[in-house]
C-alpha cells in the first residue's frame, strides 16, 4: 500500500487495548488503521497498564475512516500464528512491531518467508521467548493445599516474564480439572472452582501459602531419585534457571545434592563392584564366570554374556559399550554394523585387529522387544559400575599399554565416572595402572548420521584412530638408553 497525501498522516493516533494480551483488539484496530493508510510511526498502542502520551503531538483517539476503495488488509497464516505469541511478550514495542510488519505485508506478501529480515527475526525471537515462558510455567508451578470452609483449595504462586497467564489457563484447567485451584501472579490471577475459570487482580507473594505437609514427602522423593551419575549442572540450570528455585520446594535440596554428587557417585561405583573372592586368574575363567553372572538386571534377561577376545599380550585394548543383537547370537564382540565400521577404520589407520584385544564395558545385551526385533537399550550407570569388576579383571590380565574407550558408557566403565566424550576425546588420560586411556565416539553414532554431518564425524573418528596408531608406534619404541 502506497502512502496517500492526507492531513491524517500528521496526526498521532492512540489505540487503547483492553488488556496487555488483547490480540483480538489489536487485530481489529490494526485492520482499520491499514485501511485508513495510517503509517506505523503515527500510532501509539497502549493498554491500561501502559499509558503513554506524546505532549507535543497532534493526538486523535478516534479511529480514522478507511480510504476510498481501500482493499481488505493482506496477511498470512504464518504472521497471524506468530503474532498471537508475540502479543504475549512483555516488550512494550510488540504492538508497534506487529503493525509495522503488517504494513509491510501489504506490499511484500512473502515477507514472512524472509528469515534474514530484522523484523521477522525479532518476531520469531519474541515468540520463542514466550513459548519458553509458557513451558516453564507448566513445569514449575507448585500448588499448595489450603483448607477453607469449602474444603481443600490449592494455591500456587508464579512470576512469569510475559503475559502468558491467560493463555496458559486452559492447560491447567485440563490438567487439574478435578480440584479447585488458584494461580497468583504479580500481573493477574486465575481461579478455577471446578466449573468456571475466573480472572482476578494481581497478587503478592504473601497471598500464597509457604508450604504444606505434602512438601516433606515430595522433597524426600526428589532426594531419593536424584542420580549423581547423570548430573550435568549446566544442562540443569538451562532447563531450571535459578530464578524459579525460590518457588520450588525441592530447590532447597539442590545445592547440597550437587555438592555431594561426586561422593555419592563414588559410592555407587563401589556398591556396583564385585565383593566376593579374588579376581579370576585367566581370561577363560572370566569368560566362564560372566556366563553365570546375575548381579544386575541385564544378566537376568536370558541373553548370553559375550567375552572379549584377542591376544592376552595386546598393547591395545578397545572397549565398547555392550554386545548387540548379532554379537549376542554369535558370542563374539564387534560383529554387527558398528563393529564393521570400527574394523574398517582400524584397517585404514593401520591398526591390526588381530593384534588388538576387544571387549565391552557391559557383558550382556540390554534390549527391549519391538515385535520380533530386539532393539538396543542403553545400560544404566549402576549396570556399568557392576560390570566394571569384569572389565578391570580383563585389564589386569591383558595389561595393555593403551586403552581406547568407544563412547560414554565405555569411558565410565574405565574411569568410574561419566564424562563428555566430545570434551575429552583426542587426548591421553592416565589410568591407575599406568596405562593410557583415549576416548572417542562409538561407531554406532556414525551410523545414526547422514550427509555432511556423518562425513565430519567420520573424519574426526578417523583422526582419533590415526592418533592412536601413532601413539602405539611411539610406545613400542625402546626407551632412550635401553639396549635392543
Would you kindly provide a written description of the structure presented here, covering whatever features stand out?
- The protein is 40% helix and 13% strand.
- It has 484 residues and is α/β, with parallel strands linked by helices.
- It folds into four domains: 7-121, no CATH class; 141-207, no CATH class; 214-259, no CATH class; 283-475, Uracil-DNA Glycosylase, subunit E, CATH 3.40.470.10.
- The strands form four sheets. It has a five-stranded mixed β-sheet with strand order 4-5-6-7-8, with helices on one face. A five-stranded mixed β-sheet has the order 10-9-13-15-14, sandwiched between helices.
- The longest helix is centred in the C-terminal third of the chain and has 26 residues, at 451-476.
- Mean pLDDT is 85; it is low at 1-7, 52-61 and 272-276.
For the largest beta-sheet, the strand count, sense and barrel status come to: 5 strands, mixed
- Rg is 32 Å
Low-pLDDT ranges: 1-7, 52-61, 272-276
What strand line-up does the widest sheet have? 4-5-6-7-8
CATH superfamily of the largest domain: Uracil-DNA glycosylase-like domain
Give me the count of strands: 15
Structural class: alpha/beta
- Round the mean pLDDT to the nearest integer and report it: 85
The CATH topology of the largest domain is Uracil-DNA Glycosylase, subunit E
Tally of discrete structural domains: 4
What attributes does this structure have?
484 residues, alpha/beta, 4 domains, five-stranded mixed sheet, 15 strands, disordered N terminus
Amino acid at each position: 500500500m502506497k502512502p496517500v497525501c492526507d492531513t491524517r498522516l500528521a496526526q498521532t493516533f492512540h489505540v487503547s487495548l483492553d488488556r496487555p494480551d488483547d490480540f483480538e483488539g489489536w487485530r481489529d484496530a490494526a485492520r482499520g488503521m491499514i485501511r485508513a493508510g495510517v503509517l506505523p510511526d503515527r500510532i501509539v498502542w497502549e493498554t491500561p497498564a501502559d499509558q503513554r502520551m506524546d505532549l507535543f503531538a497532534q493526538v486523535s483517539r478516534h479511529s480514522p475512516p478507511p480510504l476510498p476503495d481501500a482493499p481488505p488488509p493482506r496477511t498470512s497464516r504464518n504472521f497471524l500464528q506468530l503474532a498471537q505469541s508475540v502479543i504475549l511478550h512483555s516488550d512494550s514495542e510488540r504492538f508497534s512491531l506487529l503493525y509495522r510488519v503488517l504494513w509491510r505485508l501489504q506490499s511484500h506478501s512473502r515477507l514472512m518467508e524472509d528469515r534474514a529480515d530484522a523484523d521477522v527475526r525479532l518476531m520469531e525471537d519474541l515468540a520463542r521467548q514466550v513459548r519458553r515462558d509458557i513451558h516453564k510455567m507448566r513445569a514449575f508451578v507448585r500448588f499448595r493445599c489450603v483448607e477453607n470452609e469449602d474444603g481443600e483449595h490449592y494455591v500456587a504462586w508464579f512470576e512469569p516474564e510475559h503475559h502468558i497467564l491467560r493463555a496458559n489457563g486452559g492447560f491447567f484447567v485440563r490438567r487439574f480439572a478435578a480440584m479447585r485451584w488458584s494461580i497468583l501472579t504479580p500481573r493477574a490471577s486465575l481461579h478455577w472452582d471446578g466449573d468456571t475459570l475466573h480472572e482476578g487482580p494481581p497478587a503478592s507473594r504473601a497471598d500464597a501459602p509457604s508450604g504444606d505437609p505434602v512438601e516433606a514427602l515430595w522433597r524426600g522423593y526428589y532426594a531419593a531419585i536424584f542420580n549423581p551419575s547423570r548430573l550435568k549442572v549446566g544442562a540443569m540450570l538451562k532447563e531450571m534457571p535459578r530464578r524459579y528455585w525460590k518457588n520450588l520446594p525441592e530447590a532447597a535440596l539442590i545445592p547440597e545434592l550437587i555438592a555431594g554428587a561426586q561422593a555419592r557417585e563414588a559410592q555407587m561405583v563401589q556398591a556396583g563392584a564385585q565383593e566376593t573372592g579374588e579376581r579370576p586368574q585367566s581370561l577363560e575363567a572370566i569368560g566362564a564366570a560372566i556366563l553365570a553372572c546375575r548381579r544386575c538386571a541385564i544378566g537376568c534377561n536370558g541373553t548370553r554374556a559375550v567375552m572379549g577376545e584377542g591376544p592376552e599380550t595386546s598393547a591395545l585394548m578397545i572397549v565398547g559399550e555392550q554386545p548387540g543383537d548379532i554379537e549376542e547370537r554369535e558370542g563374539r564382540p564387534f560383529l554387527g554394523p558398528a563393529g564393521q565400521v570400527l574394523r574398517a577404520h582400524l584397517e585404514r589407520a593401520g591398526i591390526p585387529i588381530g593384534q588388538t584385544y576387544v571387549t565391552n564395558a557391559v557383558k550382556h545385551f540390554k534390549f527391549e522387544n519391538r515385535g520380533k526385533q530386539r532393539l538396543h537399550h542403553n545400560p544404566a550407570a549402576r549396570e556399568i559400575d557392576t560390570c566394571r569388576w569384569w572389565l578391570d579383571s580383563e585389564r589386569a590380565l591383558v595389561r595393555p599399554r593403551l586403552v581406547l574407550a568407544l563412547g560414554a558408557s565405555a569411558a565410565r566403565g574405565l574411569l568410574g565416572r561419566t564424562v563428555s566424550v566430545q570434551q575429552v576425546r583426542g587426548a591421553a588420560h592416565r589410568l591407575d595402572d599406568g596405562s593410557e586411556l583415549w576416548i572417542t565416539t562409538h561407531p554406532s553414532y556414525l551410523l545414526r548420521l547422514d550427509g555432511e554431518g556423518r562425513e565430519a564425524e567420520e573424519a574426526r573418528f578417523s583422526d582419533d584412530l590415526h592418533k592412536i596408531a601413532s601413539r602405539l608406534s611411539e610406545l613400542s619404541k625402546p626407551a632412550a638408553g635401553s639396549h635392543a
